[in-house]
Amino acid sequence: MYAAWTVKHKPKSLKYVVGNKEVIQKFVDWVRSWEKGIPKKRAAFLYGPPGVGKTVTVEALANDFQVELVEKNASDYRTESAIRRFAGLASQYGSLFGGKRIVLLDELDGLTGTADKGGVKAITEIIKSAQCPVVLIANNAYDPRFSNLRNYCLLIEFKKPPAGEVMKHLKRICAREGIQADENALKFIAQRSEGDVRSAVNDFQALAQGRKRLTYEDVSWLGYRDRQETIFTVLRMIIYGKTCVGAKRAVDMADVDIDMLFEWIYENVPAHLTDPHDLARAMDALSIADVYRGRIRATQDWSFTRYVIDYMTAGVAMARQNTKTRGWIPFKFPGRIRMLSRSKAERAMQLSIGYKIKRKCHISAVRASKEILPYLRIIFKNNANMAAGLAKWLDLDPEMIEYLVGSKKKAEAIIKLLS
Amino acid sequence: MSFEMWAEKYRPKTLDDMVNQKEIVERLKSFVKSRNVPHCIFAGPPGTGKTTAAICLARDLYGGAYREHIMELNASDERGINVVRETVKTFARVRSIGEISFKIMILDEADNMTSDAQQALRRTMERYTETCRFILIANYSGKIIEPIQSRCAPFRFTYLPREEHDQHLRQIAEEEKVKLLDDGLDAIFEVCSGDLRRAINTLQAAASLDKPVDAKVVYSITGRANPADVQKMIEIAMNGNFLEARKQLRDMIQKYGVAGSDIIRQIHTEIFRADMPEQWKIKLADIIGEIDYRLVEGADEEVQLSALLARLVEAGYELRKANMV
After folding, report:
1. What number of other Cβ atoms are within 10 A of residue A194's Cβ?
2. Is this complex's ipTM strictly greater than 0.95?
3. Which of A24, A43, A227, B230 has the fewest Cβ atoms within 10 Å of its own Cβ atom?
4. CB-based contact A360 B8, cutoff 8 Å
C-alpha cells in the first residue's frame, strides 16, 4: 500500500508550512512568551477552514522547538471527565523528563450534542489553571458554544492560502517524488483546491503517483469535484484501461466504495464492450471478482479485497481485445441499485410475510419469502376460500393479504370471508 | 380442501410416519431406543426430509411436549457470530429437566453460517455436550467447517425416488379431493425434480385453480420460474442481445424471486434440448458447471448468471459465424 502524501510530505518545520506566514508568527510569539512566565491568555485558539494547515502548524512548531506535543482529538474525548483526566493532568505538570510540552485539543467542532455536555466547560476550567501552552483547534471559533471559552484564548485565524503558495508545496513534493510536472498542471490542481491544501495534495497524488511526468492534459479532465463526474472518469479509466496498473489505480480515485463501484462497472461493461468474446471475458472477470467477494463474506478476511479489485478493474480492462472504440457512449447509473431501492419496501413486505410463514413451517423467513411466497401469491389470486383459510392459519395482516392478491377489492373479499 | 399449507399438514409427525430415507430413519430410531443422540449433520438437497427427520426424532424422544426441549434456529435469518455467542450458548448450557438430560438444538440452513460463527459453535458444541446435542441441517455439508464435521455423525439425504414422490402426492391429492392427472404429476416432478416441499406447494397452488391438475396447469403456475421464460432468455442471449437477456434475468430474480440455482438448472436442461451442434452442448455444460460451482461458493446470483449469459452470446456469435462459412 502507498502512504498518503498528505502524511508522507507533511511539513516537518514551520518554514515549509503553506501560507499564513503572519498568522504563524503571531502563534510563535505567543508560545515564546511562555519562556518569560505564564502569559495572560494561557490558550491559543486556532481556527479556519479545513485543510489550511492549523494542525500541521502546531506539529511543525513542536518539532522546531523540540517540545513534547500531547495531542488528542476532542472527538475521542467527549465527556467532561475524560477531558479532565487527559488534558487536566497533562496541562498541570511539566513533562516527564523535565522538558517543555504543549497540549493540543484538535477538532473541537466534533464536540457537539448533549453527549458532550460539560466538555467545553471542562476545557475552560483547565485553561484557567494551565501550566503549559494549551492549543485549541476548530473550524469555527465563533460557534456560540465557545462564547465563554473564547474569553480565555488568544484567537488566531488561519486563512486559505493563495494558489501560488499551494503550488510551491506541490513543487516540493514533485522534487521529493522525482516527478516532472508542467507548471500549468500544478496550477490547475492548486486552483481547483480553493485553498484546501490537503485536498490539493490528495488530488495530486491520485493523478501523479507512479508517473514520471505530469502534463496539463493529464489533469484537465478533473473538472469540478463532483461525484458523478468522478465516477465517469473512473469508469473510463477501467473500461478503456490499457494497463493493469492504470485500471487498478482508478479505484483510489473513486468517490464510491468498492461494492458500489462494482455495480457501476457491472452495469456499464456490456454497452462498452460489444465484441462477444470481449464481453464474455469481461463478465467472467466480474464473476471471479464476485467470487472473491463471497470468499470475503465467508472468511471475513478483508485482505482478499485486493483480488476483487484486480478482477473488477484490471480484469475488465484486459478483456478488451477486439472491440473498437467508437464515439461517445454514455455511462448509466446502475440499474440494479435503482431497482433495489424501488423494491425495498416490497422486499420488506415479503420478508415480514416470510416471518409469518416461518412460525408455522420450519423454514427460514428469508427462504420462505423466496420459495413459498410465490405459491401463496398464486393461491391468493385464484382461490379466495383457500386464501382466507391460509390467511387465518398464517395470521396475515390485511396489508399482507392485499400484497399477495395484488388488488384492494379482491383483498376485501378475502378479509370478508375471514370474519 | 383444507386451509393450511399442505406441506405442513402432511409433514410426518413421527419417525414411523417417515416413508422415505429408510436407512437414515432406522438409525435415528436406534438413537431414540437408546435414549441418546450424538451431534448430527443432516445434509442433502432441499425437500428431502432433513428438517422433518430432526423434528420427528425430537418428538419420538421427548413425546408431546418436545418443544420444551428443543430449539430451532435458522442460520439464514440469524447467521452472525453473536447468535452463537448468545442465543445458542444460553440454550445449550442450561440442563434440561426430565428423563433425558440433554436438549436438542436444531440449526437449520447451517451452511449459511459465517465461518466465524461456525468456529464459535465448535467450542460451544464441545463444552456443552452434556446438556445439549446439535443437529446441523445443510444443503452442502462441504460448507460446514472440518472441525464441526468431525464432531458429528453425518447423514446424507437424497432425493426421493420417483415412485415414492408420486405415491406421496397422489395420497395428498386424494385426501384433499384434488384430481391429479398423470401428466400433471410428470410436470410437477420435472419442475421440482424431487424436492417434496416444492412439489406439495406446487400441487396446492395448482389445486387452487379449481380444475383438474394437468401439465398445462402446472406449467402455467410455475411458468414464470420455468421452461418458457428461461428458454426465451437463452434465445435472446444466443441472438446477441446481452442487455435484454440480462434484463429478463434481473426480472426473474428480483421481481419473481426465482432462485439462481433453479435458473441454472433450467438452463442446463434447455441447452441439451436446444438446436445446436452437439459439441457445443458439452462445451456449454462445462461453463454452466463452473458458474454453478461459483454460485455454491456464495457469489451474487445475477452477476454469476449474467456471466453465463455473456458466454451464450459468445456461443451464438460463433455459431452464426460457422454457419455463414
Report:
1. 14
2. no
3. A227
4. yes
Q: Does B64 touch chain A (CB under 8 A)?
A: no
Cβ <8 Å between A393 and B311? no
Q: What is the pLDDT along chain B (325 residues), one digit of tens a residue?
A: 557 899 999 999 999 998 788 889 999 999 999 898 999 999 999 889 999 999 999 999 998 888 889 998 887 777 667 777 788 888 888 887 778 889 999 999 888 888 788 888 888 888 888 899 999 999 888 888 888 888 888 999 988 889 989 999 999 999 999 999 999 999 899 888 889 999 999 999 999 988 899 888 887 777 545 567 888 899 999 999 999 999 999 888 876 667 787 789 889 988 888 877 888 889 899 999 999 999 887 678 899 999 999 999 999 998 888 876 5
Kindly determine whether residue A286 and residue B303, on different chains, have CB atoms separated by under 8 Å.
Answer: yes
- Residue B94 contacts A, CB cutoff 8 Å: no
Contacts of B250 in chain A (CB under 8 A): 335-336, 339
Distances (CA, A) of B20 to A9, B90, B158, B164: 72, 35, 10, 7
Domains and CATH numbers, chain B: 6-156 (3.40.50.300), 164-221 (1.10.8.60), 227-324 (1.20.272.10)
Residue whose cell numbers read 484557567: A128
| Angle subtended at Cα A50 by Cα A49 and Cα A55, rounded to the nearest 5 degrees | 105
Buried b (16+ CB within 10 A) or exposed e, B177-186: ebebbeebbe
User: B205 vs A276: CB contact, 8 Å cut-off?
Assistant: no
Q: Which CATH superfamily, name and number, covers A20-157?
A: P-loop containing nucleotide triphosphate hydrolases (3.40.50.300)
Q: Which positions in chain A touch B109 (Cβ < 8 Å)?
A: 364, 367
Number of CB pairs, chain A paired with chain B, less than 8 A apart: 165
User: Could you tell me if B254 lies within 8 Å of chain A, comparing CB atoms?
Assistant: yes
The CATH class, in words, for A163-224 is mainly alpha
A392: CB partners within 8 A, 6+ apart: A418, B3
Cell of B287: 461453463
B230, B224 Cβ separation under 8 angstroms: no
